[in-house]
Design goal:
By secondary structure, the protein is an alpha/beta fold. It is built from 14 helices and eight strands. Helix 8 crosses helix 9, helix 9 packs across helix 10 and helix 12 packs parallel to helix 13.
Length: 340
């Protein structure tokens, strides 16, 4: 297997934990892999550098699919680029006649390309339309701040941003939108910053960080997508297949951690007084010892890697275990009840 280094990437994008993800996936000739979050194609390229592998790459962002077209010529017959959501990977690869695969990788959350493009509306560091839709469809972030009640906004910001001051932020948004529509990223960031009393010297992150995270997760249903994607990967992987998942914040990592804990037989009982649960054969064996984080050198060279966490498992021959949102620790809110 070739060594995987950031220097191999032709673009400025540097995939996080690349060597560690490839070590977990252990690609070999004739094996089929799904890259569920193609993005700039870092993991796909590394997989295709192993002679004889085949990669099916999925991304809900049409700009990522368009940017990846040159790779089809570089790896003729070995790469498929599919627009869509990774939660629907089983249906997407079925259209290619594929019913099982040897590996799946997911790098969840917003991509560097999306953050760097002001017109996508993900970043409060660059002014752009308040959009945040990864696939360009459905309700935008501007729609949410325009249409949701104060209570609903506070609920979204608290649940998906883990922002303790969600209520004053929601109150400030409702007051500001009564004067003029909130349509720009910097406009919203300034409203949030004022609601929190400004930025203090000791603050490690911008005051609007958690609010922007909350809106992005809600708009794209990122946690639901992650849970459904994990379940789909479990069903698609053949015995011996590998699943490697990179997450970037606690809400994502909690779901991934509990998914693997449940499926490797390592979930603790909720109480020592609780009755023994029916034994379920583990559907995964752990790869490595728990979570893998970036080295000091990678975190220094690639700031996005600082919060990255990799968890991986190897599929057994046991039946897939049905998803249980409560056991995964998912923070779900009733989307239908949120509009004014």
């Amino acid at each position: 297997m070739p060594a995987f280094h950031k220097e191999q990437m032709p673009s400025g994008h540097v995939p996080v934990l690349l060597a560690e993800v490839m070590a977990a996936l252990a690609p070999k000739a004739s094996e089929i892999f799904i890259d569920g979050t193609f993005g700039a194609g870092g993991y796909s390229r590394a997989l295709l550098e192993v002679e004889g592998t085949t990669v099916i790459a999925i991304d809900r962002d049409p700009t990522a699919i368009a940017a990846g077209q040159p790779l089809l010529e570089k790896y003729p017959g070995r790469l498929s680029l599919l627009p869509g959501r990774f939660a629907e990977m089983a249906e997407l690869v079925s259209a290619l006649g594929v019913s099982s695969v040897d590996g799946v990788t997911l790098d969840v959350g917003v991509s560097s390309m999306q953050l760097d493009q002001a017109e996508r509306g993900f970043s409060f560091m660059q002014d752009g339309p308040l959009d945040m839709r990864m696939g360009g469809e459905g309700m935008s972030a501007a729609d949410v701040v325009a249409e949701f009640s104060e209570t609903a906004l506070a609920n979204v910001i608290f649940t998906y941003g883990e922002e303790r001051k969600s209520r004053p932020i929601a109150r400030a948004i409702v007051k500001a939108r009564s004067i003029e529509p909130i349509a720009r990223t910097v406009q919203l960031a300034e409203i949030v910053e004022r609601a929190l009393g400004g930025r203090r010297p000791q603050d490690r992150i911008h005051p609007a960080t958690r609010t922007f995270q909350a809106l992005r997760i809600f708009v794209n249903d990122e946690l639901g997508e992650l849970a459904r994607g994990l379940g789909a990967a479990e069903r698609l992987l053949r015995p011996g297949g590998r699943l490697a998942v990179v997450s970037f914040h606690s809400l994502e990592d909690r779901i991934v951690k509990r998914f693997f804990a449940d499926r490797t037989g390592r979930s603790p009982r909720t109480s020592r007084h609780a009755p023994e649960e029916d034994h379920v054969a583990p559907s995964f064996e752990a790869i490595g010892r728990g979570v893998i984080s970036a080295s000091e050198a990678e975190a220094r060279d690639n700031p996005r890697a600082r919060s990255a966490k990799l968890r991986a498992g190897c599929r057994t021959s046991a039946d897939a275990i049905p998803l249980d949102a409560e056991r995964l620790g998912m923070k779900a809110i009733d989307r239908e009840a949120l509009s004014c």
